[in-house]
Amino acid sequence: MNFEDFNISSQIKDAIGQMGFTKPTPIQEKAIPQALKGMDITAQAQTGSGKTIAFAIPVLEKIFIPDKSPQAIILCPTRELCMQVADEINKVGSKIKKLKVLAVYGGQPIGKQTRVLKKGVHIVVGTPGRVIDHIERENLDLIGVESVVLDEADEMLEMGFREDIEEILSNTPNQRQTLLFSATIPSEIREIAKKYQKSPKFIKISSNRKNAPKITQYYYKCDINDKFDSLTRLIMAYDVKLILIFCNTKKSVDFVKKHLKKQEFNVDALHGDMTQKARDKVMNKFRNGNINILVATDVAARGLDIDGVDVVINYDVAQNADDYTHRIGRTARAGKTGYALSLVSADEVSRFNNIKKSNNISQKQIPTLLEINELKSLLILNDVKKSKDNLDEYVKIIEKSENKNFSSTELAAGLLKRIMEN
Ligand code: AMP
Question: Where does the pLDDT of residue 27 fall: very low under 50, low under 70, confident under 90, or very high at 90 and above?
Fold first, then answer.
C-alpha cells in the first residue's frame, strides 16, 4: 500500500511526497482509513511509529479554510512535542493555502499566543494547562471543534493532566471525533476512552512488524560500586554519535554528569527542576552535536524527539516496564537501528526481571579495556581499508623507511597505537 491509495486530497498527497514518504507506516495504514470514515480511534503506538502523520492527515482533511475558528485541538504532554507536532502538521498541510496552525504551551508569554488566536487559527496544538488557561481567558472557544487528538495520552495522565483533559473534552461538542494515541494502555486510558469516545476502533501495532523500531537490547550485571566504571566502558565500546543516559533521580543525574565531565566526555544533563530556557539550551547543544552525551531523568525526557540517538543507556533500572518502553523508544527512530543497554546492580535485579518478562533483552559482559581497544582498532582499520585511493605519496615514504629491524606490519601497528593513544 502507498499514500496514493488513500482517499485524500491531492494537496496532502503532494506534501507527503515532498516530505519523501511513499509508503505509510503500519499505524498510518490502519488508522488513516478508519479516521477518514469519522471513526473514533484508540491507538497503541510508540513515538517513532509515524503516529503524528496518522492523525495529521485525517485532521487536515476535515479543515474548512474559510472558517477561521479552531476546528481541531491536539493535546500533547510537553512543549517540545507541541512544537514538533505543529511543525509536522504544517508540513503535511504545506499545500493548503491559508492554513493556520498554532502551538500553545507554558513558558512562552501568553500575550503573543492570544494575539494569534484572536486573528483566527484552524488547528490548536497545546499542552493541557495552557489550553485551559486560554479557555478561561476566553481566548479560545472550542464550540466549532470537530476533531480532538490526545497525543501520548499515557504521558499526559502520568504528568497529572487528567482533570485538565477532561475539562477540555467537556468544552468541545459531543459530535466531535476523538483520536487517542498512547504508547501504553493502562486502565486509566481505557476509562478515558470509554467516557469520551464513541465505540472507538482499537488499533495496536504489534512490535514484531517489519517497520517496528530495530532496537538491540542488552543488559549487564554489575557491582554497585563498579557501576560508573561500567558505564564509561560501555560509552567507549559503543563509540557513537549520540548517547542518552537515563537515571532515576536528579541526584543520580548530577553524579553521572559530574563524573563523566571529569573524564572529559562531552556531556550535559536534563532534569525536572530546570527552567524551560535552560532545558532548551541543553537540547539545542545535543541536537547540534555540541555535546554527544545527555543524562536525563524520565520526566525531563518526556516528549523529546531527537533524531539519531544511537544508544540509550539505563544507568538506573527503570521503575517499571512502561518507563523502560518510553526510554528505549528514544532510539531507533524513523526506521533506524539503535541499542538499549541496561546496567543492573544486585538491588535492582527483581525490578529488572519484571521488565525483562515483556522485553527481549540478552545478557552481556561489560567489555574489558583490552576488548574495547581491539574493537576500536578494528573500526579504524576498517576505515583505513575503505580509503585506498591517493596513497601513492605515503606508500613511497613507508617503503623508504622500511628496513630489517622494522617491518611494515610493525610500522602500521605503531601508527595504530599512536591514533589509539591520542
Ligand atoms: P512519529 O511517530 O510521528 O514521532 O514519527 C517518527 C518519524 O517518522 C518522524 O520523523 C516522521 O517524519 C517519520 N515518518 C512518518 N511517517 C513516515 C513514513 N510513512 N515513512 C517514513 N518516515 C515516516
Answer: very high
| Cα of 47 from ligand 1 centre, angstroms | 9
CB atoms near residue 31 (< 10 Å): 28
Judgement on whether residues 198 and 345 belong to the same structural domain of the protein: no
pLDDT at 213: 59
Residues 100 and 196 grouped into a single domain: yes
In testing the pocket of ligand 1, which one of 21, 81, 182 has its CB within 8 Å of the most ligand atoms? Answer: 21
Quote the mean pLDDT of the chain: 89
Interval 390-405 mean pLDDT: 78
Q: Per-residue pLDDT tens for 179-208?
A: 999 988 989 999 999 999 999 999 988 654
Q: Tell me, in angstroms, the distance from the centre of ligand 1 to residue 351's CA.
A: 32
Same domain, 319 and 410: no
Do 300 and 247 lie in one domain? The reply is: yes
If asked whether residues 238 and 194 sit together in one domain, one would say no
Amino acid at 244: L
Mean pLDDT of 314-336: 85
Question: Cα of 88 to ligand 1 centre, how many Å?
Answer: 9
List residues near ligand 1 (CB under 6 A): 21, 23-25, 28, 47-53, 305, 333-334
Taking the CA of residue 47 as reference, the ligand 1 atom at the shortest distance is: 2
User: What residues make up the domain containing 73?
Assistant: 3-204
Report the Cα 1 to chain-centroid distance in Å: 26
